[in-house]
TrEMBL record:
Cell location: Cell membrane
Protein name: Lysine transporter LysE
Species per Swiss-Prot/TrEMBL record: Bordetella genomosp. 7
Signal peptide: none
GO cellular component, one term: plasma membrane
Main location: membrane
Lineage start: Bacteria, Pseudomonadati, Pseudomonadota, Betaproteobacteria, Burkholderiales
Length: 210
């Protein structure tokens, strides 16, 4: 018989979802590095954050409603996403490394090559949907949510809260750090760091896919 979860149960599920989400999402990965760079470039940051938040919301709740079944129905889907992700991350690592090796590369790119809103949104979507870690995190959230039975949507809401908090922190952090990036050396360090992160993620994914 259907029963409605009590308020304490809902709050417990929400708090658990928030803690789980922070543990999963609050890392400097591919999506986070992309958002930081967009913020430092002042290039459509709000649109990028809004898209990432929307994608997180859609897939967090979709996972609770049964997205895990897709992996069973289409076993090839996981491998396809993994290798698309490897190629995408490797390409971005190469671009970041090229900017880092040029004395003025990152600063010139930030001043003169601000991407269009469409390009920024496509980049945000790519770093989200072509990242196998994103799908793994979503599946984990969906699996854990079902242990809360009638409060599973509260757990999902908590995970979404964590996502929004992390995205807001990235956006605010990039704006606070912006004055430091008038120095081209700071851009070289950032691009070099991003190149290392992206290359490491690509290698790790490729290793896991073999």
């Amino acid at each position: 018989m259907f029963s409605v979860a009590t308020l304490p149960t809902l709050l417990t599920a929400w708090a658990s979802g928030t803690a789980t989400g922070l543990g999963l999402f609050a890392v400097v990965g591919a999506q986070s590095a992309f958002i930081l760079r967009q913020g430092l470039m002042r290039a459509h940051l709000f649109s990028v954050l809004a898209l990432c938040a929307t994608l997180d919301a859609v897939f967090i709740f979709a996972s609770v409603w049964g997205l895990q079944a897709l992996a069973t129905w289409f076993p090839w889907l996981t491998q396809a996403i993994l290798w698309f992700g490897v190629a995408f991350l490797a390409w971005y690592a190469l671009q970041s490394a090229r900017r880092a090796l040029r004395p003025q590369g990152g600063l010139v790119a930030a001043r003169a090559a601000v991407p269009s809103r469409r390009a920024a949104l496509l980049g945000a979507a790519g770093f989200t949907l072509l990242n196998p870690h994103f799908w793994l995190d979503i599946m984990v959230v969906g699996s854990l949510a079902h242990s809360f039975d009638q409060a599973r949507l509260a757990f999902a809401a908590g995970a979404l809260t964590a996502s929004l908090v992390w995205l807001a922190a990235l956006g605010l952090g990039s704006r606070l750090l912006a004055p430091w990036f008038a120095n081209p050396r700071a851009w070289r360090v950032l691009d070099g760091s991003i190149a290392v992160i992206m290359a490491a993620l690509a290698l790790r994914l490729a290793y896991n896919g073999l």
